[in-house]
Design brief:
253 residues; globular; single chain; alpha+beta; six-stranded antiparallel β-sheet; five-stranded antiparallel β-sheet
């Protein structure tokens, strides 16, 4: 991570009107999040013993479905969105949230992961019908070692984890964004991302616990974080640019 000197220098540069990104020397590394906008129909209700996925590249979890515009809510993007239905699925019992997971292969980013420089961000948008409905959504990012096939048993034993929560408004015309960021530890071989609507009002186990709760517009980005030495070079170059500008203004070169 950048030193205090780097951070202080960056603040000074921004104050001088020059914006410097500490990740400017490394391009963003894409990771494959499949069906990010839920435009492709797939059986999102998982069929393992606890409903969790055991392979990469598909959404699985509690009872949910792909839908088009309904109940006064249009998709955030495209023609479809995910609707949460209940905290259960055909293979597992009732829980405290309707959650849907996807596993992502981290192999394309192994060089930055093993260097401890892999910063990943997961984002999504949420919406719900108005009235006295469950207001809380959340997302999760987890890093795992081993194989995706291990995930149904290893879901609660990650190498690292991060969560973000949203208490949503009851305006069906607004989609609200939510994002979470995690530094992947060395040894990460795959990533788990979760979308969820949480039970907060009525925990009665019925087929449709959530009356109108939706997710759409998800994304996943991995940005390499430069080592401190590289960050210092970037900041030093920018500091030199500031000095040159000041000399130019005073008639010196």
């Amino acid at each position: 991570m950048p030193s205090r000197f780097c951070v202080a220098a960056a603040r000074g540069l921004m104050a001088a009107g020059i914006v410097v990104s500490l990740a400017a020397t490394a391009a963003a590394t894409p990771l494959t999040l499949t069906n990010a906008g839920f435009e492709t129909d797939e059986p999102t209700a998982g069929m393992t013993f606890n409903g969790l996925p055991s392979t990469t590249g598909q959404w699985e979890g509690d009872d949910s479905r792909r839908v088009t515009a309904e109940q006064g809510i249009a998709p955030f993007e495209g023609e479809a969105m995910l609707r949460f239905l209940s905290s259960a699925n055909p293979a597992a019992g009732w829980g405290w949230a309707s959650d849907v997971w996807q596993l992502i292969d981290a192999a394309p980013a192994q060089s930055v992961i093993q260097a401890g420089e892999a910063l990943v961000t997961f984002s999504a948008h949420f919406n719900r019908i108005g009235g006295n409905t469950e207001p809380l959504f959340f997302i999760t990012l987890r890093a795992f070692g081993g194989l995706p096939a291990d995930f149904p048993l290893a879901a609660e034993s990650p190498l690292a984890t991060a969560n973000a929560f949203l208490t949503s408004d009851d305006d069906p015309n607004t989609w609200e964004p939510l994002s979470v960021t995690l530094l992947l530890p060395p040894g990460t071989t795959f990533i788990g991302v979760r979308l969820a609507a949480k039970e907060t009002i009525d925990d009665t186990p019925v087929p449709f616990e959530f009356l109108g709760h939706y997710a759409d517009g998800t994304s996943l980005t991995l940005t390499p974080v430069p080592e401190p030495a590289t960050a210092l070079l970037v900041l030093s170059g920018a500091a030199g640019l500031i000095a040159r500008r000041r000399r130019s203004r005073s008639g010196q070169f």
